[in-house]
Amino acid sequence: MTPASEKTPKTLFEKVWQQHLVAEPAGEPTILYIDLHLIHEVTSPQAFEGLRLAGRKLRRPDRTVATVDHNVPTSSIQDRLHIVDQISSLQVETLRKNCAHFGVEFYDVQSSNQGIVHIIGPELGLTKPGMTIVCGDSHTSTHGAFGALAFGIGTSEVEHVMATQTLPQDKPKTFRINVEGALPYGVTAKDIVLDIIGRIGTAGATGHVIEYAGSAIRALSMEGRMTICNMSIEAGARAGMITPDATTFSYLMGRRFSPTGAAWDEAVARWSELKTDEGATFDRELNIDATQLAPRVTWGTSPGMVTGINSTVPLPDPNASDADQKAFERALEYMDLKAGTPMEQTSAPPPP
Question: CA of 271: how far to CAs of 243, 274, 303, in Å?
Answer without folding.
Answer: 9, 5, 33
